[in-house]
Amino acid sequence: MKYCINCGAQIKDEAKFCPNCGQDQTKEVNDEQPTESFTENETVQQTIVLGKSYFSYFMEKLRRPNANLTGNLTYFGYISLGIYLLLQALLSSMIISRGLSAIDQFLAFIGGYDYSYDPFAFGTSLADGVGFTFFLRILFLYALILVITIGVTYGTERVSLKSPVSFNQTVNQLANFLSGINLFLLLFTFGLFIRLFSPMFCLIVMLLAALFFQSSIIFVVQRNADNKQAKIAPFYIVLLIFILNSIVNWLLMLATIG
Fold first, then answer.
1. Could you tell me the pTM of the whole model?
2. If you average pLDDT over residues 135-142, what whole number do you get?
3. Do residues 17 and 132 both lie within one domain?
4. Domain with 131 in it
């Protein structure tokens, strides 16, 4: 007779598994397993706490977009910006995919594909090229535009304000209104997915969301100009930001198309 290497129960010499605890007698007991389980459980708990904290931040920004938050909540603006990018890229990809599918159906209806008439020279379905890779390209392009917008806003305020704001403060101020915008984008993305809304209607909503986000720059600059004593009138600060944004984004679009 021998004893189980895990629970110590007496077992037969030829037994490969313990009838009491089920331990494989051919393997050694891993003493580090409880530590790993504890670490994994702690990570799960931290994730849950983070999710609850962001939900509180999300709801507070829905009620009071201009509310000043402190502590770890100040970094949730980056999360809101990331969600905004993902939703914009996803909605754009779905709109383009549905639009090209509609063109496919129209060409098939008039016999364009049946008679080898393809004015766009794609040869196959127009929507075939709209996949995950296309989504990543759209996401990367939107991320560049967003980084440029934040960078231009921050740089302009550094030059035009007597007491410049920090980069973290600029990011969170621009993200103040994103809770409401992200909620609408999520609803219309889901609505387009289940074909509740048309691609054209969702396109209008997406453009309005982008316009509203760009308009938030006006509120941010005006607030900082009042609190930080601007060297020039806030109107010229906003005008300078939009001019620089337009120039840099235009150059980016030319580089992308080229």
1. 0.70
2. 88
3. no
4. 76-257
